[in-house]
Amino acid sequence: MVHLIIELSKYLMIILFVVYVYKCFSYFTDKDYYEQDSILGTQLALIFLIHFLGYTALFFAMEDKRTLLGILYLLQVGLFILTQSLYSVFYPKSSRLVLNNMCMLMSVGFIMLARLNTDTCMRQMFFAAVSIVISLFVPVVVRKMKVLQKWTWLYAGVGIACLGIVLLLGAVTGGAKLSFDIGPVTIQPSEFVKILFVFFVAAALRERTDFKYVVLVTIAAAAHVLILVASTDLGAAVIMFVVYLIMLFVATRQPLYLFAGLFAGSGASVVAFKLFNHVRVRVEVWKDPFANWDNGYQIGNALFAIGTGGWVGMGLTQGMPESVPVVKTDFIFSAICEELGIIFGLGLILVCVSCYIMFLNIAMQIHEQFYKLVALGLGTCYIFQVFLNIGGVIKFIPMTGLTLPWVSYGGSSLLSTTLMFAIIQGLYILREDEEEEIERQRARELRKQRRRVRYDR
């Protein structure tokens, strides 16, 4: 009976998730307001259904933890309802698609973390609640504080100082200095410095794009990356490098900067390979994880898990995701594919892509250059982290040790990603304000034209 419930819930979750993904992209193609509203309402219902099915399977499979699972389920449902309600009350012009995707990705993360370790899921839920409360203040700050685009070198100074503190005082994890402890809380500053870095580059390139100034900005950007390289936090260093390159190219429209950056990045990759032993190990593991099993067992087990799950997965609690080291953080995508299937995993990727499309849509439609670049930078930062995490898990690229935003366990990652999306909500509201102002101007011009016609008569 339990096996039947798990199998049935698995297939229903896959089908409903595919429908959710379809609704994500149909939202962009359907321009009718009422149809879009219907799509968003359907998405919200699907989030709660998928979440319910996941916890139903866990409830029947994990008999010894049913009480705790019931508490977790009710608290998470309350969190989703509260999040949707608060945003609709305080920010009625915010993007419901972005909000739905945030809740869906968190829902998938909660289900997998509850399956792996209920205590970890409880902590993640606490981090999520704190992150959402903090994020509620962000859109109004973005909307009202025009001075944000003037703090160019303050962003750079704070970012470099935070990374420098980690370089000097950070604890070594997996061969890299990533974080430090403040009491019982572990903080990974690079997660937040990414946001400051985007604001710095956007503010700088808004002011000027002449060659001398671009060189100065590039030196400051390189300082961020070099400190991360010295800390051997190469995942964050790669993200900042790519974000800067794309933002610079979009702001200047100079292909020469793009090619020069790619050349410099390629050279830096070779230097990193020569200097850092753990980089060489990761490259060797990427080439053949089975040749050196002592170092390649993470990737090897992840590939075994994905292959075992196949297209439709084995069902929640029916696989062995615990055999993959750090499965709750770096390798959670392999656990998702093992128990919910590759189809579900592909759908997860497409949901992330739809978020990025929304970011680009805002960047293209908003008029102020600073906000355009912020939306582009944050979107690139988000989607490239998704690429680095999933690409490393499936052995498409060497593993970088980054989390899958909103799905993997990690307080710093969860908070920084929630802040990114809250900033995007603020930019979306700004765009709506701009469109309303344009409509008002058009109405005023029309009234003036009508008065002129009556006067001429």
Keywords:
single chain, 457 residues, mainly alpha, 3-stranded antiparallel sheet, 17 helices, 3 strands, 3% strand
- Cα distance spanning the termini: 84 Å
Count of helical stretches:
17
Point out poorly predicted stretches: none
Mean pLDDT: 89
Overall spatial form:
globular
Counting helices, strands and paired strands, the structural category is: mainly alpha
The run of helices and strands is HHHHHHHEEEHHHHHHHHHH
What would you note in describing this structure?
With 457 residues, the protein is mostly helical. The chain has helices at residues 2-29, 33-61, 66-90, 96-116, 118-135, 138-144, 152-169, 190-207, 211-230, 234-252, 255-275, 277-287, 293-309, 332-340, 342-365, 369-393, 411-456; strands at 171-173, 176-182, 185-187. It has a 3-stranded antiparallel β-sheet with strand order 1-2-3. Helix 10 packs antiparallel against helix 11 and helix 11 (255-275) crosses helix 12. The longest helix has 46 residues, at 411-456. The chain is globular and about 85 Å long.
Topology:
Layout: H1 2-29, H2 33-61, H3 66-90, H4 96-116, H5 118-135, H6 138-144, H7 152-169, E1 171-173, E2 176-182, E3 185-187, H8 190-207, H9 211-230, H10 234-252, H11 255-275, H12 277-287, H13 293-309, H14 332-340, H15 342-365, H16 369-393, H17 411-456
Antiparallel strand pairs: 1-2, 2-3
